[in-house]
Amino acid sequence: MGAFTEQQEELVNSSWEAFKGNLSQNSVTFFKLVLEKEPGAKDLFSFLANGVDPNNPKMAAHAEKLFGTVRDAAVQLKTKGEVVAEAKLGSVHIEKKVTDPQFAVIKEALLKTIKEAVGDKWNQELNDAWEQAYNAMAAAIKKAMA
Ligand code: HEM
What we know:
This protein is mainly α and 146 residues long. 75% of the residues lie in helices and 0% in strands. It contains seven helices and no strands. The protein has helices spanning 6-21, 23-37, 41-44, 57-80, 87-95, 100-118, 124-145. The longest helix is centred in the middle third of the chain and has 24 residues, at 57-80. Bound molecules: protoporphyrin IX containing FE (HEM). Residues 41, 44-46, 65-66, 69-70, 88-89, 92-93, 96, 98, 102-103, 106, 134, 137-138, 141 line the site of protoporphyrin IX containing FE.
């Protein structure tokens, strides 16, 4: 994997803006995809206890935090070539007993949600930039969990 380029950072930044521009709808898309693949997520996220409720502000707030953290990974990759996660992110995910397969579920749902959010602006490079940023942040969180 080569260095993370300015162009890749720009692809992530512009699609992050598109994601936030329709946050409510995009967070519904995201958590529906998560629940399809991982019904157990219902018991992990307090705001999913009654399924996906578009009117629950906690759901959108969480999606914004999660996608924003991956966007931050893109910025870190571009500026310092590596990603470090806050210690708190390690402890939150230890507490919730998050597993490796769940990281793959979240990645797939995130990439599909970005694809929907950007519509005809989607392309493989954009997808790969998000995937690279996600993989780096996932590795940093797992390191913080170890
Ligand atoms: C790169 C991947 C991930 C990122 C960037 C991420 C990001 C975050 C962030 C920013 C928080 C909030 C921490 C806070 O409140 O300060 C959080 C909490 C949490 N994350 Fe993750 N996460 C990731 C992967 C996962 C995975 C794979 C799962 C399991 C399905 C998961 C489950 C949770 C849960 C259950 C919480 C607590 C939510 C609550 O407050 O109810 N996360 N995550």
